[in-house]
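User: Teach me something about this protein's shape.
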Amino acid sequence: MGDPNGFSFSLREYVEYNSLDNDLYFIARDIGNMLGSPDRNEGVLKHTEFAELKTESELNNRQDYRNLSYDDRTFVAEGNVYMVKLNDGSKAKIRIRQVDSSAYKKQVTFDYIYFGQ
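Assistant: First, the predicted structure itself:
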């Protein structure tokens, strides 16, 4: 909390978790680090879903992504790759570069490809 902890793919910038532009947010909990759908906190916010691509380590791989199993939150770890299904029907693909959830800093850094509508 404090610093923007959400991200908007269409704006290409970090936003507050309760922003109407927010597509995802980072959750650092005792059980693990997660990315979650903003509507999990407030029902009027966007709904986002995540699917881990377990066999991928690169953003530019191309596969058939039609039969993925999505959820509205996912545990994250450095190096993992995820497809993100956004509220407006567009998609993004992200690769987690770094996760820091120490007592003094809670941050996830990722590379992404935004496919838009």
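Now, about its shape. The CA atoms of residues 50 and 84 lie 5 Å apart. The mean pLDDT is 87. If you'd like, I can walk through any region in more detail.
User: That's plenty for now, thanks!
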